[in-house]
Amino acid sequence: NAGVTQTPKFQVLKTGQSMTLQCAQDMNHNSMYWYRQDPGMGLRLIYYSASEGTTDKGEVPNGYNVSRLNKREFSLRLESAAPSQTSVYFCASSPRKNTEAFFGQGTRLTVV
Amino acid sequence: RKEVEQDPGPFNVPEGATVAFNCTYSNSASQSFFWYRQDCRKEPKLLMSVYSSGNEDGRFTAQLNRASQYISLLIRDSKLSDSATYLCVVVPGDYKLSFGAGTTVTVRA
Fold this sequence. Notes:
The complex is a heterodimer. Chain A is mainly β. Chain A has strands spanning 4-7, 10-13, 19-25, 31-38, 42-49, 56-57, 64-68, 74-78, 87-94, 102-103, 107-111.
């Protein structure tokens, strides 16, 4: 009964390093999302994938890239990490548009 | 103006009390509405959907007022375990869920 699985759970990067956050869902959902959560700001959408083969920018896409590898997997890449990208990152999936989303446990990323 | 705005609280209430709070949204075309619960350092979890006619799930009641563009959540007979941050979520009719910054509720013994 895994739902949405994110890896890693914690990561510390140096400024300028790159990394990929992995996300997989086993609920056969069509849509997947990447959000970041910062204190006092709520969750902000970085990128989303409405369906396999499509990706679109959200509210805060700068500094990130995504890949919808297949229906199950949606990865988020930071090419050159910056301290402003220190945040908690959540992956989510939903069965279709206008429906609720289900979240992974989050990745706590610190960029020093 | 933010798409979704919430009173951040905190609402500090004794066990057994009733607590209620609202969330306003800016997009009048919004079609779906939800309340999520988030515990400290955990992922958001769906608490309940909000329907036009209002709906109830145990001690929780959600209401939608489309004319004034707000949704509300009422918690009756508060339990210690209700202490959390409650996130208002609005979907404007596409794939993107917009989140409020959350309302913090603390229930004290």
